[in-house]
Amino acid sequence: MILWAVLIGMLMSAVDTTIVILALPTITDKLKAPFLDTIWVILIYLLVLAALTTQLGRLGDIYGRGRIFNLGFLIFIIGSALSGAATSVDFLIGARGLQGFGAVLIQANSGAIVADYFPVRERGRAFGITSMGWTIGGTLGIVLGGIITSLTTWRFIFYINVPIGLIGFYLALKYIKDNQEEKVKMDYSGTGLLLVLLVLISYGAVEIAGNGVSALNLAMLVAGIVLIIPFLVVEKVVKSPMLILRAFKEKMLSYSLLSATLQAIGYLSVLFILIMYLQGVRGYSPLDSALLLVPGYIVSSLLSPRMGRLSDKISPGYVASTGIFLMAIGVLIYYSMGVATPIYIVVVGSLATGIGGSFFWPSNSSAVMTAAPRDLLGSVSGLQRTLSNIGTLMSYVIAISIAALSVPRNVAFEVFLGVDKLQGGVSAKFMVGIHSALLVSFIILIFGALSSLATGKMRRFNPHTPDKVSEPEKV
Fold this sequence. Notes:
The protein is an all-alpha fold. The protein has 2 domains: 2-187 and 240-453, Growth Hormone, Chain: A (Up-down Bundle); 188-239. Helix content is 79%, strand content 0%. α13 runs antiparallel to α19 (424-453) and α15 (316-335) runs antiparallel to α19. The longest helix is centred in the first third of the chain and has 32 residues, at 120-151. The radius of gyration is 21 Å and the shape is globular.
């Protein structure tokens, strides 16, 4: 039941990273809000995840992972209910921020909970199952967003989390117990700097994409980038940094975290680019566009547990690097698309990236937690999710920015939201931007694969992480 609780938590938090995408046109219309405001319904959720995951993973080390994990369920449920009841876009953005806070508490502690309850030889399988929750969540988010919005009201894309969350909360409360509390301090200054720089970069980039370059927008973007320097300086001097430098002394851990970050940056934007292609260039409805991408997610969900078991038997670095290479091949398949390409090519690409994901996600998680020092399992679990969430956030920003560089900005936002179809020469110009974005994604994925490949000779059993752990119920 422990795995079921973690699976449900990962499922819900993953669903809400994608479910809003296809509902944005309806939300924009019903709440009478401009595009540049409604896009923050997505970005605020990702910002909270990106900035707070490491620190809230540390809360699990301090106060007990079971307690913090259960609190995450409650906050997520409340945030979901408030999001569904929103009467203005500002209220919805605030409720989504609260929802994201609950998702952080769940995500940041899930990997460490698996490491607490499962011996090293079984972790690949366990991470495979929890990774299945992430991939299934991505599928459900895309499909449910279209189905629910089409058949009922956009509000139910948030209300659906309430009954599911209550089930997960019950299981977690009953079966997941607190670990031994550890004396770990919080890094408020580092967290604050990270949050500020991510907000500045995201807001500046979105404003440039939507309204063009101005002195203010450019200054915000540059300021956010420049703040990376004082952030790193602070992390070197504080006693308990959120960027755990001691963990990075483990070379295999560093490579595994780097590959996870590059995979998120390189791959997540592909989904949004494909939706823009299918809706804006090919004229498919949001729901039909989502259904074309479903086969890859289904295959990934089915194969993830098997690939997790495979990484229990051989080096997880080899399995993970194979996965990213397959994802890169899928991106090359997408790169071959044009304005009249047979639509089955999209399905083929989806299958390639889906299979690659089933190789990468469970084995990378297993590699990270195996290489992590035992006393930092919660913090490393949070750091892993933080880096992946930052990559996801940057993917959104990249997708929006590239679209705006390809066609007139207002048209790009309409295509992104699925409310317009490009015609004639404009469609061809938009394809140039899509190809450029896919090429960038391919290059990033190749670097991620090389980073993962560097962990191939990693010892399967880390002396930091004892093989024998307590054996509570795992079913």
